[in-house]
Amino acid sequence: MARKITNLVLGSEGFIGKPFCAFLESLGEKVVRFDIKRSTQEDLRNAKLSLKGIDRIYFLAWDVGGTKYLFKKDSLLNQIEWNTEILMNTMPQLEKSGVPFLFISSQFAEEYGTPYGATKRLGEIWTRLIPNGYYVRQWNVYGVTEDQDERSHVISDFIHKAIENGEIKMLSNGKEHRQFVHLEDSFRAYHKVLSEKIKGKIYDVTSGEWTRIIDVARAIANFTGAKVKPGKKNVVDHHIFPVNDRVPGWKPKIHLQEGLSKLVDEYRK
Length: 269
Prior knowledge:
Elements: E1 6-10, H1 17-26, E2 30-34, E3 56-59, H2 67-70, H3 76-97, E4 101-106, H4 115-128, E5 133-138, E6 140-142, H5 154-165, E7 167-169, E8 177-182, H6 183-195, E9 203-205, E10 210-212, H7 213-224, E11 227-229, H8 256-268
Parallel strand pairs: 1-2, 1-3, 3-4, 4-5, 5-9, 6-8, 7-11
Antiparallel strand pairs: 8-10
């Protein structure tokens, strides 16, 4: 019997990390979890990694959250310090190990004006310089339930408000555009890049479809019977465009309407 592929998932307890571990296990692969939420000894700002027997590494650990957190003034300095320390401690260990690893970057790496974007770009550059490093840019992802706090994401916030309050009270007028991609589609892209060792350029993991936030709220309202109450704030639409190709041989399968319907059902449970 062939030995199971063993994956180390850095950031295994996060919004993406926890369901991604389940995805890998559903493929019959073994998962070693690593996250500060499990133990202070798994704080990647200073932890020593045990990489013996590890075949692939997925680098998801980051100080991150939804827009509310990423642009909150009193979180900006912490994001720079925390994420830079993670890179300083973790990247040399990954390089020395020679184990193939995938750094999950972000669309915001194209935007240098934010700590999140700047630190993700630094991670991209560092990964590119390491022979065993691979990386992709993740766009706005959704697909699992979240606790409602400053780090939760817009789709989860809308669904929670719709079910709990019967209305989706928005902070903005909702005219800003985003590209959303379901977690299950993202996971297939991650796995494909690292298992097939696809390299040469960075790839955008996104649907390629622009959607207004107000239209997301209205779709959720259709599934829940809630009322949509747009705010007055006019959010600047950055329009960070995909600058790279999709992962070769990959394309998203779950349309936004289908994904929203499934997530509403999960919240209702």
